[in-house]
Structures are given as structure tokens and as C-alpha cells.
Amino acid sequence: MPPVSAPADKRFRRSHVKPSSRRRSRLRALWTGARVVAVLTLAAYAAWRGVALVSGAATFRVAHVTVTGNERLSTGEVMALMDGLRGAHILGLRLDEWRDRLRSSPWVEDATLRRVLPSTVEVRVRERRPMALARVGSGLYLIDPHGVVVDEFGPPYADLDMPLVDGLLSPAEGRPAAVDETRTALAARVIAALAARPDIESKVSQIDVHDPHDAVVMLEGDTAMLRLGEDDFVERLQQYLDLGDALRERVAAIDYVDLRFAERLYVRPARRPAAAPASAGVRR
């Protein structure tokens, strides 16, 4: 009888089957992901603990505030605007908000604040520069070249030497009168031009800008109104100074002199002798 060969046992034998490379890659990815999650969790916890420790540390509380750039405002007045800054956490400060507080003062045109760790804040103030005294009703007010009313004129500003400006207010229907930008710009141009000629600037006592296209100037001790127009202010004032004596020989009392025309000037006599102008108390 011929030998019978038995079929090979094809049943699955786990001990002889190795896991596929795809399964190994999946397991490795899961293990790597778990480790990354664990590391990130630990890092987040460490960061949270670090922030908590720093936020609670007295070292990072504002203990010193330095103020520079202030001239008219005292350091105490600047500090009063920043009430509450001392003791605040330096890393949590919203510097823009404190800057806005400083700019709420009419004297402060701008300010910068800087953290100096661990506990100092440096404040630099840029104050407004008054260019003239504006007459508003019966009061006198310091005003800057942008038409901002800085403060009422009084004894603390007796050292300021600047001309008196009339006509800056522009009445608005149904609203309180406001500083007119066009008139302010005209006054600023006149004052800027005069700054280049201190010898003439020191003689100017009043500027009137009721007409935004015609600046009218009065000189110390002179009752004549000098109409200068919108430009060439210094040249036209120099023309009047050169001819002033000759004009007064012909016209005893002058109401105004129109200097807006290069070829000639026009003189209007006063109807009656004019009294000496009252001193505004701002030129010495």
C-alpha cells in the first residue's frame, strides 16, 4: 500500500506570525503622541505655575515711578494723574490706558511710558507750548498752535512773554463758541514768522484774526492797526516801521494802515485822537 502524505497543517499559529510593519508604525505613533501630550501638559502646568508665582511676587509690583520732560506741570501733578500706578503688577500694566490718563491734562500733548523690570516705570511727558494769549470774553487763556486752550492766564505764568490774540473764537449757531482752526492757523503763521525777527517780534503787542484772511497787528505804544493779509508779515511790518515817522508827520492820528499791496499802502486817519492803548500786561 502506497504511503499517504498528510496535508500540511495550515492552522494559524500565533507563535510563528510576526506583526506587520504597518501595525508596528501605528503603535509607535500612538506611543509618541502620548509622550508629546504628556510633555505639553507638563510644560503648560509649569508655565501656569510660573505665571502664578510671578504675578504674586512683590518684586514685580511697581515701587518706583520716574518722571521727566515736565516743566510747567510739577512731578506731583503728573503723579496725581497716575493715581493707582504704584503697587500695580508691572507685567499686567496697560500702558496705553495710563498714557491716555496723562493726556487728559491740557498741558500734556503726549507721553511715553516704559517698564524697567523688576519694579520701575519710566514716564516721559511732552508738554504743550503756548504760542499766545487768547482773549475769551473778559478772560485771558494760554493757547497752543493747534488751538488747544491750555490754561487760564494767571500769576504762575507771569514769566511768559507772548502777544495777545483776538478773534480766535468762531460763534456757531446753536452751540457755544469754539476756537476756529483757520483763524488759529493764521495767528500761528504770524507768530512763527515773527520768531525769525526778534527785534520786530518784541514790538508786537496784539494780533487780531477776526478775518481769517487778514491778520491785523498792533505794536507797543502805537494805536494804528496794521493790516497784513495772509503772508509776508515780517516784510510788511518792516515797511511800516521804515515809513512810520513820515506817515505820522502827514497824519497825526492813524486809524489803520493797509499793507497788503506791494505797490502802495493805504492810510486811514482816525476820526478823533486815540487814547494810548491799555497794556495787556504780557509784554515787558
Features:
6 helices, 284 residues, alpha/beta, Ubiquitin-like (UB roll), nine-stranded mixed β-sheet, Rossmann fold, 25% strand, 14 strands
Helices, strands, pairings?
Layout: H1 21-56, E1 64-68, H2 75-81, H3 95-103, E2 108-116, E3 120-127, E4 132-136, E5 139-143, E6 149-152, E7 164-166, E8 169-172, E9 175-179, H4 181-195, H5 198-201, E10 204-208, E11 215-219, E12 225-229, H6 233-250, E13 254-258, E14 266-269
Parallel strand pairs: 1-3, 4-7, 7-10, 12-13
Antiparallel strand pairs: 2-3, 4-5, 5-6, 8-9, 10-11, 11-12, 13-14
Structure characterization notes:
The chain has six helices and 14 strands. With 284 residues, the chain is an alpha/beta fold. The chain has two domains: 59-126, Roll (Ubiquitin-like (UB roll)); 132-269, Rossmann fold (3-Layer(aba) Sandwich). The strands form three sheets. It has a nine-stranded mixed beta sheet with strand order 6-5-4-7-10-11-12-13-14, with helices on one face. The chain has a three-stranded mixed beta sheet with strand order 1-3-2, covered by helices on one side. The chain has a two-stranded antiparallel ribbon with strand order 8-9. The relative contact order is 0.07.
Summarize this entry quickly:
By secondary structure, this protein is α/β, with parallel strands linked by helices. The protein has two domains: 59-126, membrane protein fhac (Ubiquitin-like (UB roll)), CATH 3.10.20; 132-269, Rossmann fold (3-Layer(aba) Sandwich).
